[in-house]
Amino acid sequence: IMFLRLLSDIQWRAAHPKWRRMSGSQRSSSTTAEPHPVALPAQAQVVICGGGVTGTSVAYHLSKMGWKDIVLLEQGRLAAGTTRFCAGIVSTARPVSVELKMAHYSNKLYQQLEQETGVQTGYVKTGSISLAQTQDRLISLKRIASSLNVMGIPCEIINPKKVLQLHPLINIHDLVGAMYVPEDALVSSANVSLALATAASRNGVQIHERTCVSHVTIQKGRVTGVETDRGRIQCEYFVNCAGQWAYELGHSGEEPVHIPLHACEHFYLLTHPLKDPLSSSLPTVVDPDGRIYIRNWQGGILSGGFEKNPKPLFTEGRNQLEIQNLQEDWDHFAPLLSALLRRMPGLESLQIMQLVNCPESFTPDMRCIMGESPTARGYFVLAGMNSAGISYGGGAGKYLAEWIVNGYPSENVWPLDLKRFGTLQSSRTFLRHRVMEVMPLMYDLKVPRWDFQTGRQLRTSPLYDRLDAQGARWMEKHGFERVKYFVPPGSDLLDLDHSKTFYKPDWFDIVGAEVKCCKEAVCVIDMSSFTKFEISSTGDQALESLQYLFSNDLDVPVGHVVHTGMLNEKGGYENDCSIARLSKRSFFMISPTDQQVHCWAWLKNRLPDDSNLVLEDVTWKYTALNLIGPRAVDVLSELSYAPMTAEHFPSLFCKEMSVGYANGIRVMSITHTGEPGFVLYIPIEYALHVYNEVMNMGQKYGIRNAGYYALRSLRIEKFFAFWGQDLDAFTTPMECGREFQVKLDKGVEFLGQEVLLEQKQNGVYKRFTMFILEDHDTDTDLWPWWGEPIFRNGRYVGKTTSSAYSYTLERHVCLGFVHHFDEKTGEELVVTTDFINQGEYEIDIAGQRFQAKAKLYPFSSLFTQRRRKDEVELSGYQRE
Amino acid sequence: MCVCPGPRRIAIPVRSSRLPLLSDAMPAPAHLFPLIRSCEISRIGSTACYCHHRHLCCLSSHFAHSHFRYAPQKKFAALYRPKEHFNHFIHTRDYASTPQRFYLTPPQVNSILKANEYSFKVPEFDGKNVSSVLGFDSNQLPANAPIEDRRSAATCLQTRGMLLGVFDGHAGCACAQAVSERLFYYIAVSLLPHETLLEIENAVESGRALLPILQWHKHPNDYFSKEASKLYFNSLRTYWQELIDLNSGETTDVREALINAFKRLDNDISLEAQVGDPNSFLNYLVLRVAFSGATACVAHVDGIDLHIANTGDSRAMLGVQEEDGSWSAVNLSYDHNAQNEREVERVKMEHPKSEERSLVKQDRLLGLLMPFRAFGDVKFKWSIELQKRVIESGPDQLNDNEYTKFIPPNYYTPPYLTAEPEVIHHKLRPQDKFLVLATDGLWETMHRQDVARIVGEYLTGVHHQQPIAVGGYKVTLGQMHGLLTERRARISSVFEDQNAATHLIRHAVGNNEFGTVDHERLSKMLSLPEELARMYRDDITIIVVQFNSHVIGAYQDEEL
User: Fold this and answer.
1) Do residues B113 and B502 make contact, with C-beta atoms less than 8 angstroms apart?
2) C-alpha dihedral over A143, A145, A147, A149, to 10 degrees?
3) Nearest to A112 by CA among A185, A10, A52, A19
4) What's the rounded Cα separation, in Å, for the pair A372 and A378?
5) Distance CA B311, CA B261 (A)
6) What is the value of pTM for the model shown?
7) Given CB 3.0 to 4.6 Å as the disulfide criterion, which of A460, A668, B288, B465 pairs with A464?
8) What is the spatial distance between Cα B301 and Cα B231, in angstroms, rounded to a whole number?
9) Which residue of A has its CA nearest to B470?
């Protein structure tokens, strides 16, 4: 507790007189010390709950954007929660691109904040050193370094000797290298928060401390107001920045808003100053292999970490007072202390000041949560910072403010969007178990294709056990178990820990065999996880609405399947789906698994309020079997006694038919891979029967099970883009070669039409391109993953979005976007076909560049001999 | 059983050099007796071999740790090949110098240590346990293959009280096995009032369901011989019939009951072997039981009355918590061996003065047997004539067995050995927290004071250490690190065990010179190959009984 006074209260006192003076002069209502607090306003446009760094950052940015009618409520005092305890490290070394951008922005914001507000933020540009004890760790650092460099953030990979020069206390004997980011900084997080609040307050934001939000009122799916212990405030927008209490707050109202996050205890150590006090500009050290970070602190050090065995807390929901009473737990901290003394043996004689227990909130996928609730319009969330609140706070607040003011942020934030989660991730048990995995993961080595191991087997196909018994290896998407590949009997794959690699994985040949079978015979992939909606109406309402919401022409004959984007006003992909016209007035829509919440909200918010127009989520009703391969047609015609040849069953066609004894199976001639075949949508009670029939009948055609890795390889070599990975809300069909899926002249106005028309005339500023790695040795070189920088004639032009090994081409294929930056100004120019074709390309994998051949169209010649005439699913869509 | 750290090392080369001989000389009767595991037979066989080459038995290696020891002979040096000896020590050193090759991981160590652990909690009624026993933990760690120790635990159903016992077999496990199966029935029957005995006898007579006498608390590895159950039952029935006929009308005294039961069972074992059985398997079994031996240390707990009946050199020890919270040990049994002067006196008293010199040699009875009291071991009880007659009329396996044929030297006035126990009665007090019954495998490696402390701290959960708070103290990172490392070492050794007996074994095998468990040492000890394990340690069997101080306190108040 001593520390609380030292780190926070002293600083608070230092800042507070100033703060009170300012707030007084600004007629604002910081009421902490005043006997009679200023009454709450009866209404406001925006109410923000939470006075930590995220809440104040949102207030700051909203007010900067010109919104004035804003009230910020804090149950205790400003910056009194996790923010007060935060270690204050601003680190830009983040693997996810949007997180990196947020951290970069935060850093720039904090740097000038003291000047802007007059509040001392303690900002010091110390730089940071991330240490690598293993070659694999160094590879992961090199990957981050590559992406920092192309962002223009200085960053270098350095050898251990250089580490010693930068930080004399570090024991370098077990290091293989390190990454140095010279512009990373330290701040006093509480003061940053106060500075943001000060600036916001100057811009008219009203701040009320010691005001507790009891719940948010929602009527007809819209936020109408906030109930507090000091009365009610009517508002249009509510922003939940309640940090680790965000989950509770979300559940407090009648209509729950699910914000899946969970707190874990987090410990760090403070020491007295060294004999020769450490310089305040000494770089921060991150030793992920030792699971610790170390920064200088008042001449001594501050060191914490992310232990292997975290202690989740507040699972049952508690009040915030308990946060003050959390105990130090030295036994728990012991491994981290060992790591610290191993890293800096010279600190043995340093005297301990305090072990701080400061809970942090974590999310199920280690990424923060922002955005609007799918069920309550005007209910925004910014929380779950996974202990990087200070690094992200500035940038995240900016994006959320943009989101509220403009309808969407200036960056693609889908990886952080609240709507990537649904109710299924908000079980307390799930969260408790998952965050125990997530917290250590902060410093775990993350190799391509890692999966979460906790909170699994929640949603499964009816065939799960059957497939599992046949050697299926599973991954999870939106709670749904999906097969990666099938381990043939007798073959011995490495166990989980040993199969972690940045190089050629152990399943290489297994997936190769599955791909081969898809090409030459027939494979079955269970694709039941896809989101499936049915839209129907009594009259033409369904068609009319869909024609407006989708860019392709849906007024097709009954039985046709249309690939189409669901675009936003800017022509960007909100979703990418296949829609089958079941009848004149009903449609069956298939979209990616993780679209279940987002797409539902998007449609609900945009479909007319008409009781004769019904939108239904039928995801759970159907099991989907994808029969891929040239012999799929034979299997299916034998099982149905119906001719399945092209004349009778053309490509992109949908028909209900019988398969085996089961009737009413929805068969579609699409495979999501560009290979010939069918997807069977089977009412779940028939799933086992149809699967058995298909496998029995398929035997003579060489049928086998396959998984998503095979599918992925097939779709990437065919240049199929996939939403959520390659496509996002900032990508238009024109930019990814899908003009043919846009019917500008369909005679009906549709969302995004104007932008697409404009792009058609004036060209696009980025172009989805396929790269075939030329001098890359699959056996010995690092494999591409995604996010690798693309260089054209030696200049950075974009990043890859996905990659796979093509067993047909026997080469690695990367997909990614190419931009055209003006050589002098950096301004974005139109990307033409010539620009793409006339460049020499290289892909940077962890600092090593590989030559690549760029292509705008798939290698059709390579594949055509196996395809049926006129049945080419031209660059269809793909999702995983 | 034997405390002989010196011979242990000498035994290594001797034993290994003897092994080829053994296999040559062995009749290999394993296929005839599927129930007898081959190792056991090889043990009998090996005994035979040694005896066959009696003049070579000078090495007596095999018996260095068993209860037998044949008088050292002159030809020791002749057979003993120094080169092998040397090689062997080189080899042993290899274990030490390249330990990683033989190291077991902590989970492997745990799976070995926990393989035989068993816990029993006395069930509670209405949320209250009215028994003075909270429950017990037991475990055993073999050194012999198969293990020669046995353990038993049971609740008396027709009288109050709980019976717990450890049995250390020698010259095979047959006798220990039989005693572990039978002794508690003899005790229970001895304790039964006349009416209950009558009721039981009538039930048997009329073929009705029998009143259950004992509820066993057995680990799945603790087996009962199905084949012999009929035979055993008949002997037991004869015993209770005699008790009925003898009806003294007096209430049964526990001490007497225990002594009678011990003596009666040993007598029955002896009789069964003399009478034989038409079934050839059973016939061989009863002979093996009689010709092997076993010590027994049995506790009977009824309320605050604790009786320990001990025969041999297993030991019962009471763990007492002093007022200051520290732990002390109180012995509740006397070892019956050469270290016990009273016991030596007793033996000498029972035999003519002329035998005084030959009675106890090398701390062994007749120079052969370590414990001075035991079940079975008819070689030390029967007359020479009887032994010869039984062996001659016995099955070939017995006849071919040189050990059984061998008559102890200076065998003039049998019996030299008795199974009569020494009984100690103790009234439990609230400070008596637990009782440890263990075979000598434990006691030869650990002092009872350490046993009391380790179990005491384990049971009272001292391992739930107070959290450390720095507070206003001046502590450096290095000091804190040292403190935490030490705490972790202590905690990890405790937290690994849910069973006090396992915890004790972990210490017994793995303790280093500082009295803390050294994983390296533990792992090394447990990875010793079977034939070496016996050189470094004996079978260990432990039962830790935990007492219910509240109930005991209440009893005391009543008595006051």
Assistant:
1) yes
2) -150
3) A185
4) 7
5) 12
6) 0.69
7) A460
8) 29
9) A354
Residue B477 to residue A341, Cβ atoms within 8 A: yes
B278: which strand partners?
none
Chain B interface, best mutation among A302, A331, A338, A349, by max B CB count within 10 A: A331
Closest-CA residue of B relative to A1 is B471
Phi, psi of A225 (to 5 degrees): 180, 180
Q: Which residues of A touch B (CB under 8 A)?
A: 269, 271, 327-331, 333-334, 337-338, 340-341, 347-355
Decide if B512 contacts B521 (C-beta within 8 A).
yes
How far is it, in rounded angstroms, from Cα A410 to Cα A137?
32
- Three-state DSSP at A582 gives strand
Nearest-10 crossing angle of helices B174-191, B229-245: 30
Q: Which of B463, B466, B480, B490 best probes binding to A when mutated, by most A CB atoms within 10 angstroms?
A: B480
Looking at the DSSP assignment, which residues form a beta bridge with residue A223?
Answer: A218
Residues in chain A, pLDDT under 50: 1-35, 864-880
CA A384 to chain centre: 13
Q: Which residues of B touch A5 (CB under 8 A)?
A: none
Residues in contact with B418: Cβ distance below 8 Å, sequence separation at least 6, in sequence order: B263, B266, B311, B373, B381
Which residue matches tokens 């070496």?
B532
Would the CB atoms of B476 and A331 count as touching at under 8 Å?
no
Q: Residue B122's pLDDT is what?
A: 85
Show the tokens assigned to A629: 């391969």
Question: Are residues A79 and A390 in contact, defined by beta-carbon separation less than 8 angstroms?
Answer: no
Any A CB within 8 A of B476 CB: yes
Could you tell me which of B343, B333, B151, B355 has the C-alpha nearest to residue B258?
Answer: B333
- Grouping H, G, I as helix, E, B as strand and the rest as coil, residue B144 is coil
CA distance A284 to chain B (A): 19
> Which single residue is written with the structure tokens 């900067």?
A64
Give the integer Cα–Cα distance in Å for A48 and A239: 5
Longest dimension (CA), chain A: 88
Chain B residue with the nearest C-alpha to that of A273: B476
Check CB contact under 8 Å for A351 and B478.
no
- Please list, in sequence order, all residues whose beta carbon lies within 8 angstroms of the beta carbon of residue B250, skipping any fewer than 6 positions away: none
Q: What is the distance between the alpha carbons of residues A714 and A880, in angstroms, rounded to a whole number? A: 12
* Residue A634 CA, distance from chain mean position: 41
What is residue B125's predicted lDDT score, i.e. its pLDDT?
64
3-state secondary structure of A845: strand
HEC per residue, A404-430: HHHCCCCCCCHHHEHHHCCHHHCCHHH
What pLDDT shows up at residue B513? 67
| Whether the Cβ atoms of residue A393 and residue A57 lie closer than 8 Å to each other | yes
Query: DSSP class of residue B6?
Result: H
The pairing of beta strand A613-617 with beta strand A531-537: antiparallel
- Please judge whether A348 and B481 are an interchain contact, meaning their C-beta atoms are less than 8 angstroms apart: yes
Q: Is B477 on the interface with A (CB under 8 A)?
A: yes
DSSP A801-834: EEEEEETTTTEEEEEEEEEEE-TTT--EEPBPHH
CA distances from A201 to A13, A61, A241, B195 (A): 19, 11, 17, 94
pLDDT value at residue A754: 95
Give, as one character, the DSSP assignment of residue A9.
I
- Chain B residues near residue A328 by CB distance under 8 angstroms: 467-470
Find where tokens 């791909």 sit: A515
Q: pLDDT tens-digit profile of A781-838?
A: 999 999 999 999 999 999 999 999 999 999 999 999 999 999 999 899 999 999 999 9
Residue ranges of chain B with pLDDT lower than 50?
1-101, 463
The answer, for B474 touching chain A at a CB cutoff of 8 Å, is: yes
Residue of A nearest to B476 (CA): A351
Q: Label the pairing between strands A312-313 and A352-357.
A: unpaired
